[in-house]
Amino acid sequence: MGEKVGVLLMAYGGPNSLDEVEPYYTHILRGRKPSSEALQDLVERYRSIGGKSPLNEITFAQAKLLQELLNASLTHHEPRFTVYVGMKHWHPYIAETVKRMAGDGVTEAIGIIMAPHYSRYSVAEYIGYAKKANEEVGNPIRFRFVVSWATHPLLIQCFANKVRQGWAQFAPEVQDKVKFVFTAHSLPMRIWDEGDPYPDELRRTCEAVAYEVGIDDWTLAYQSASGENWLGPDILEVLDELAQNGHRHVLVIPVGFLCDHLEVLYDIDIEAKRRAEELGMELRRTEMPNTDPLLIAALADITTRALQGIEDGFKLEGN
Predict the structure, then answer these.
(1) CB-based burial of residue 68 (10 Å sphere; 0-12 exposed, 13-18 middle, 19+ buried)?
(2) Distance, CA of 309 to CA of 305 (rounded, Å)
(3) Is the pTM for the entire model greater than 0.70?
(4) What domains sit in the chain, N to C, each tagged with a CATH number?
């Protein structure tokens, strides 16, 4: 094991200003320019949440806290762990960060995607970018990638605490009437035919959180679909159905995400809340893990165990 141990936190990335929305969107579209209508729509969405994505700042804050926690109990003078951030669709790109890690002399590293549920259309792409970048600089880094941590006990505990806190925000007289709706980013329906584990991993997280809190009746919905043949039901459809069945109080739990960003701050806090108001419903959302100590502890536990090759509450993949 090398003297320098790196941790590469990989996240989606997001624009830091409205001026960055177009190049960010173009990168998502793999170099194709978005239509003027699609671009304007995305610009307005970011404008409505403050003109930028908070994802980048939160991810760097998570990395800082993780590095501090990993090095807190070490006795030697030099920090053993250095935590880096690489983004899929914005600076610093994953390739840029892997090159920096190599330049810093990192030879051992753990790669963790800030999305706990594996899919070939998400997590596998992050790993592919990191592997390619490592190859381009001569494979100096021995990576172990965490491909799934959907049921890590500390992650489940973190989400469960958020559910309890969110549930408590409802008036006491309606708390037994609250409907619980877990949400996650939608993916194309073809993943069912391909045997992709994403839906099953999401359901296992929901089941574990529900069990921890003591919830028997809950629903898994999807959001942010980019077409008709995508996983459903959509969160807005679920709200319509709940309203038709006489339910008026809903707690949304974005279990597929780990921090505040557009899909939470716009899709739920603005779009879904608007629909709920039209339906005469009270909709609340759980706080995101963001920099919660339990999330940071989960990341630290995963890192230290992954270095030893111990898969406990998560799955590993090598270079």
Answers:
(1) middle
(2) 6
(3) yes
(4) 5-16+53-148+292-318 (3.40.50.1400), 153-285 (3.40.50.1400)
Q: Which of 123, 215, 113 is nearest to 163 (CA)?
A: 215
Given this model, what pLDDT does residue 180 score?
98
Output the pLDDT for position 1.
42
How many helices (H) and strands (E) in the chain? 12, 9
| Whole-number Cα distances in Å, 79 to 76, 102, 108, 206 | 8, 17, 14, 36
Task: Of 159, 174, 156, give the one whose Cα is nearest residue 253.
Answer: 159
Task: Provide the CA 148 distance to its chain's centre, in angstroms.
Answer: 12
Q: Which amino acid is at 129?
A: Y
Measured CA to CA, the distance from residue 206 to residue 294 in angstroms comes to 17
Handedness of CA 52, 58, 63, 65 (dihedral sign): positive
Are 121 and 191 in contact by the 8 Å Cβ rule? The answer is yes
Residue ranges of the chain whose pLDDT lies below 70: 1-2, 75-79, 311-316, 318-319
Closest-CA residue to 242 (of 192, 167, 172, 179): 179
Residue found by looking up tokens 């039209």 in the block: 278
E-assigned strand segments in the chain: 5-11, 81-87, 108-113, 142-148, 179-185, 218-223, 249-253, 282-285, 315-318
Which pairing describes strands 249-253 and 282-285: parallel, antiparallel, or unpaired?
Answer: parallel
In sequence order, the 6+-apart residues with CB closer than 8 A to the CB of 246 are none
Check residue 274 and give left, alpha or beta (phi > 0: left; psi -120 to 50: alpha).
Answer: alpha
Could you give the CA distance from residue 6 to residue 142 in angstroms, rounded to a whole number?
10
- Give yes or no for a contact between 110 and 307, defined as CB atoms under 8 angstroms apart: yes
Query: What does the pLDDT read at residue 122?
Result: 93
- How many Cα atoms occupy the beta-carbon half-sphere of 80 within 13 Å? 15
**Helix/strand/coil for 144:** strand
List the one residue out of 10, 152, 90, 159 whose CA is nearest residue 167: 159
